[in-house]
Amino acid sequence: MKSATLRLTTGVDLAYTDTGAPENYPYITIFAVHGIIFSNLVFKRVQSVALSKGFRFVAISRRGFPGSTPYKPEEINTIINAEEPAENRYAFMEARGHEIASFIDIFASKFGLPISKDKISGSILLGWSQGAQYVSAAIAFAPTLPSDVRIRLRAHIRSVVFYEPPPVTFGLPNAEKNWMPIFDVTIPEAPRIQMVAQWITAYFNHGDLTKRDPNALEYVVPATDKSPSIFNNAQADMEGLECYTQDACLDVPLFAFADQFKAIYRKAIGCAEVMQLFPDLKIAFVVGERSPSFAWVGLWAVQDDQKEIGSTKIIHYKVIPGANHLIHWDNPDKALEVFTSKL
C-alpha cells in the first residue's frame, strides 16, 4: 500500500494511503475520510482486502492529522473562538469541503480513474464518524468550485456513504441521555481524550432497535462478551492509528458548529444546485447493530429530519448485524461489501 501526499491548488497538502489500481478495469474507487482521534490508518485493514475484491481504496488524512498541512493560526481561531461569526464558520467548512473535493478531482486526473458510467466504475465518497462532516461539505459546496472541476466531479462521483456519524455531525439533536467520555468534564482532560478510543470501539447491548426508542439504547456501559476493537491488536497494528496531538484534538471544539453543520448537511442531500450537479448521486447511511448509542440516534435523527423538511431524496439505510463502530477494522470484508453494495 502506497503512502503519499497530494498538493492542492491552494498549496494545502493532504496525505493519503492508496491501494493502487486493481487488475480489472474499469473499477470503483473509494475515497474515505476518517473521524475523530483516529488517523486515516484506521482504514488499513479494509484497504488490505479492497484490492483483491477489485476496488481501489484511498484513505485521506484530514488537516491537522499526520502528513497533511496543519491549520493556520487564523483557522484555529475560527475553530476555538466561541464568538466567531456564523459566516466565518460556514466559510471554514466550505474550505474544508473544497479540499476534499479538490483532492478527488486532482487524484482522479493524475491516476486516470474510471468515470462513473455503469455499476462497476466511478468513485464512492465515504465519511466515517466525524469524517461525515467533511464528506457532507464536499458535496454541499461542490457547486461553488470552478466549472471545470465541477464537470469532472460530476463524471466521477457516483455515491456517498455516511458511516455512523453522530447526530451533531449534521447539526441534529442528540438524545437526552447522550453520554460520551469526551464530554464528561468530571474526567481529567488527558485521560478523557484517550478514553474515547477504548469506549468508541467497544460493543454495546441495546434493546429492541425496531421500536426506535432512545430509552432502549445503552449509553454508557459496553458489553463484556466482546472486547473493544483496539484491544485485539498487536502493537504494530496500532502504530500511528491514534492521534492525540493538539491539532487533532481541534475536532472537539468543532462540535460548536452545529448550526452550520445542519445547513451543510441539508444542502448536501437536497439543494437544487447539488441535485442538478449530481442528479444520479446515491446516498447511504451505515450503522452497526452494536455500535455506541450516538450511531443509532444519528440514524433516527436523519430519518426524522428527512420527514421534517419533506425531502424526496432517497437514503439507503444499512444495518450491519453484530457490528460495532469499527466494523472496517474487525470485519473488513463485510464492511467493504456494505460500503459498495447497490451503490
From TrEMBL:
Residues 32-334 form the AB hydrolase-1 domain. Coiled coil: none annotated. It comes from the Eukaryota. Pfam families: Abhydrolase_6. Signal peptide: none annotated. InterPro entries: AB_hydrolase_1 (IPR000073), AB_hydrolase_fold (IPR029058). This is Alpha/beta-hydrolase. It comes from Pholiota conissans. The lineage of its organism: Eukaryota, Fungi, Dikarya, Basidiomycota, Agaricomycotina.
